Amino acid sequence: MRFAEPTILWGLLAVPLLAALFLYAAARRSRTLAAFAGGDLHLERFRGEVSANRRAAKAIALLFAATAGIVAAARPQWGQGTETITRKGIELAIVLDTSSSMSATDVAPSRLARGVRAASSLLDRLEGDRIALVTFAGKPAIACPLTLDHGAVRLFLDAVDVESVSIPGTALSAAIEEGVRALGSLAVEGMEAKGRALLVISDGEDHEGGVDGAISAAKRAGVVVYAIGCGTDQGAPIPQGESGAYKKDAQGKLVTTRLDERPLRNLAIETGGKYYRSTGAEGEVEEIAKALAAMDATGSKTVLKTRWVERFQIPLAIALAALVLETLISDRRKTS
Q1: Cβ distance 197 to 90 under 8 Å?
Q2: Would you tell me the crossing angle of helices 111-125 and 150-158 to the nearest 10 degrees?
Q3: 85-302 CATH fold
Q4: Pair 315, 76: CB distance under 8 Å
Q5: Which residues of the chain have pLDDT under 50?
Q6: Could you tell me whether strands 275-277 and 224-229 are parallel, antiparallel, or unpaired per DSSP bridges?
Q7: Helix locations, 100-250, DSSP H
Q8: Which of 165, 163, 193 is closest to 180 using CA atoms?
Q9: How far apart are CA 292 and CA 134, in angstroms?
Q10: What is the pLDDT of residue 193?
Q11: What is the pLDDT of residue 208?
């Protein structure tokens, strides 16, 4: 047995004080009655109209009601059971590029802002699905693990910027593998390998290579990759901080970053997904939402321990019964 609100039990300390108050009131009532009767000579005649035992029974009933009411408010719980919880939905990891090249403004307001907006719009279109967020530059990181709380994912998404991952560079293949890990293992009892996808949002630049290995990892995990490319073929210089300066190479020339669709397209096609170029109208987001909705949902059946069973109804019923009993007891002495 346990109490969900144990601090309320401190209220039981007030029960003895209430009992003392009843005793004080009875003594005060006796003195007042004696004064009204004009002395002890006439006191017994007035006392004969009420029953001291009945008044004591009424007081005990009230004390019992107060005690049971406090116990009920503390929510006693005992007994546990098990039940099978079935959840239907896909599992999606959003893999978002936060490398410095994503700060380029060849798409308005910037590549990263466009990508964040696309991911946020997709969240609005998904219901009952578990979502994870992975950010990457030179090294990937799980910003938010798989969760049904899309609001939590949105909070992490809103906090993303090009400084989210401290190691510079663009490790696309490592990011894909981290996204697959974020979806969890297939070897879960009662879990069917369906409805697992990655959404990669990037400009396609890859400084590390190894995309073929990432494709193989996604295939082994039964993960379909959808990709959105942010940027243009013409490209743009890479802003450096808030100074208005742009990144330059060792010879002092501006570094221009361009959208590289090839690795993103390969990832999508090889895993059964599809590649889209980012647009201001976000038609690609609608298409991806439809594709995800058409995927077979993952059926997860897991036997879980339930919460403790609430038993407050028992002391509450006792408190109500005591109150009813108190009202039914008359303090007048029975006459023969």
Answers
A1: yes
A2: 170
A3: Rossmann fold (3.40.50)
A4: yes
A5: 187-193, 301, 303
A6: parallel
A7: 111-125, 150-158, 172-182, 211-220
A8: 193
A9: 18
A10: 45
A11: 73
Residue 74 confidence (pLDDT): 92
pLDDT at residue 223, rounded to an integer: 93
Nearest to 183, CA basis, from 166, 203, 198: 198
Q: Whose CA is closest to 296, among 224, 227, 226?
A: 224
Query: Which residues are within 8 A (CB) of 155 and not within 5 positions of it... i.e. 6 or more apart?
Result: none
Determine the Cα–Cα distance for residues 308 and 28; give it in Å rounded to an integer.
Answer: 47
- Overall pTM surpassing 0.85 (yes/no): no
Q: How many CB atoms lie within 10 A of CB 57?
A: 15
Residues 131, 150: Cα–Cα separation, whole Å: 7
In terms of Cβ atoms closer than 10 Å to its own Cβ (0-12, 13-18, 19+), residue 19 is: middle
Contacts 24+ apart (CB under 8 A), 185-192: 186/221, 186/222, 188/300, 189/302, 190/300, 190/301, 190/302, 191/298, 191/299, 191/300, 192/298, 192/299, 192/300
Contact between 297 and 194 under an 8 Å Cβ cutoff? The reply is yes
Q: pLDDT (tens digit, 9 = 90+) per residue, 277-330?
A: 999 899 999 999 999 988 866 555 454 556 678 889 999 999 999 999 988 888
At 76 the three-state DSSP class reads: strand
Compute the distance between CA of residue 4 and CA of residue 40 in angstroms, rounded to an integer.
54
Where do the domains of the chain lie?
Answer: 2-80+308-328, 85-302
Q: Which value, to the nearest 10 degrees, does the dihedral of the CA atoms of residues 35, 36, 39, 42 take?
A: -150
Q: Which of 218, 157, 224, 190 is nearest to 88 (CA)?
A: 190
